[in-house]
Amino acid sequence: MTRRLLIAAACLALITVPLWIGNNYYVNIASQILIYAVFALGLNVLVGYAGLVSLGHAGLFGVGCYAAAWLLAGGFGHLTAALIALLIILATSAAFAVLSLRTSGIGFVMITLALGQILWGLAYRWIGLTGGDNGINVPSRPAPFGLSLASAAPFYYFTLIVFALAVASMAVFVASPFGASLRGTRDQPRRMTALGYNVWLIRFLAFLFSGFWSGVAGLLFCYFNEFVSPNVLALSSSAEVLLMVISGGSGTLLGPIAGAALVVIMKNVASAYIERWNFVLGAIFVAIVIFMPEGLVPGSVRLWRWLWAGARRFPVRGGVR
Amino acid sequence: MSQWLLLGVNSITLGGLLFLLSAGFSLIFGLMRIPNLTHGSFFMLGAYLGVTFLGLGFDFWLAALLAAAAMAVVGGGIERLLLRRLQGQELAQVLVTLGLSFMIADLCLMLWGGDPIPLDTPPGLGGAVPIASIVFPTYRLAIVAIAVVIAVLLWLMLERTRLGAMIRAGVDDPAMARVTGIRVSRLFTIVFCLGAAIAGFAGVIGGPILSVYPGLDSDMLPLALIVVILGGTGSLLGALVGSLIIGFLYNYGQVLFPELAYIILFLPMLLILLFRPQGLFGSRVP
Amino acid sequence: MSALVLKQLEKSFGGLRVTAALDLTVEEGERRLIIGPNGAGKTTLFNLITGELRPDAGAIALFGRDITRLPCRLRPHLGLARTYQIITLFPGETLLHNVTLSLLGLSALRWNPFRRLARQQTLIERARAALGRVGLDELAERPLAQTSYGERRRVEIAMALAQEPRLLLLDEPFAGLSIDERKEVHRLLLSIPRDVTVVMIEHDMDVALELAERITLMHFGEVIVEGTRAEVVAHPRTREIYLGG
Q1: How remote is the C-alpha of A31 from its chain's centroid?
Q2: A&C contacts, CB < 8 Å
Q3: Into how many domains does chain C fold?
């Protein structure tokens, strides 16, 4: 009952954001948080539920970005561009998965890192296709059913709908038999094989699901900025979204969303007052991995319960350890 | 014709620098089972420290050695103070090295500014050597010579000394090495110091060719990563062969396919991953 | 038709031979005990049968079908299940979820990303029933991490039985159990229907001998003696190996 109330309250709060914030600058930050939350939810499928840490997801986000921008700049309509971009995202995810799923653990980290760097190199150096450092300008935001998304509030609602879809799909996925299979492959891959599961195929499908939402976030980001540059594919982007997942708490539904809010807000605050965002990003990363490896959401929950329940400590689960 | 040969010398030079970078990266990977994502930062921070030491009036080679010593302290400190706390948690260690790389990059930007800093070629090596009607830049040949000397020294250290024997044992089987009474944790520190020192040294002596700029770390790290995936982790020979392959691909790729040069670098890596995941000279899939 | 036929099965790790030209036939419905000193290659034999290891040479047939090259993940679908000597369960999940995963492994439902697992009544009832068979139905909702060693061993057996195998491999099911738990597991194994073939590795001869009609003695990867209890016990090689003669 309380759970339903909380969900209803959260929905109400999210829907009314443009009303009580008012200022377009802050509404845009709210949109950014939602975009990155979709991205982090996508990565969380791998990091949290499959136990596979990818450092190349900015590549998939960036492919969504670039594919849409390139098609739109090439004169395609919004619907066609979005559909083709989604197909390209799925194809790239499949290629990433085939190459990186030959290993797990640290090998997986390295290969996804290298693959992400390849895409960054493509965006940066293949000037004929991507415009290199100059990036690609997007002519316009889409106007679904004739509704213009040009200003901050309508775009926020558009993003909110996509975000809601992402959250709903995650909630259904996590509670499904396939979600249980995936978590099984995270904890005991060899045992899962002996129980009759095709561990590789389960991971592959999870990778596609993860890549899909990462790419969708990229698509949104492309509409949001109306411009793409190689920065979206940089290693620091992959690290940022991984930080969102880990700081919020991997393997939970709420964690990546909280992490996205935290990182986006910090990034905007940090860039307003101190110029050293990357330093702060790195420092938080180190601090969280060392002191609160299970993430802020489960970490705070644990702290909260611990404070209430006195000496009784709860076992720590999930996280990167 | 001579242009292609000159390109060959440049390739070997870059290969030499890459070897100095990836030898430590590979040893750390072999021993600790983690890709040290601060390794590119060691290279860049070493180079910037070299800039500062040169500015203080030190001789080029002394500055390079001082930078190496400083990087040994930095590397050892990172291992002792941070990675040690996360022993046995490889993933957490990798993430810490990633976080550190961002911190170091930003620190360098803060201290040395955003403009590229060119380093002067050390005195006496600025000219060119004519060999069989082709003129080779002396300094590039000197880098090759230094890389060869360090490679031989590393090889002797690994093959002929007690320390080397312990490192090899640790690379082959850390659990077994621990059982036989080797203090693996001390080896970790030593290898981290050594790797950071060589990378920092390479950063300085690479300065006159590459110059020193923000982003040098993220340019070099993927190269070290490819070299080690190509050559196999923990293998000195693998690092050497991998470095040369990448050195050649990089230089010839730049000339032949300027837009795709960066991609060409990754092609052999993809092939290796598909057909020989343990690398050319490695014994184990990472 | 034989339940399991191994022909000239060989496996080496590096230079170390673990099984050497191993021949073994187990008839349908049989209760077979495999004994032998540590390092005899018993668990390796199980790993070869389930496909977790690939043999270097030889052939494996399950109910008349050659499965030598069949991937490990397909073998449970042919009616093969096993328990492990070293417990490899899902520590963060409840007992019920552990057994449910075992059932799900053979169900097409495992690919379904849309339905709610918690609403799959038939599946969950079957998992609960499997837990009931090992006397753990009251602990169904308890996380595995909060159970005792003996309880986990029984979860292992419940997971294997839940898959309703035709051939069940038990790797030291009595190891580390208290006397009471032994009795319970013993009763449980006796209750396995006769159409299920059981191959068991066990050190505790007293308990195991009551369950098995035929015994195979392995040593250094080879079958030394095979026969009834009396035959194996009376064989000179058995004494030699066990008494260090």
Answers
A1: 14
A2: 86
A3: 2
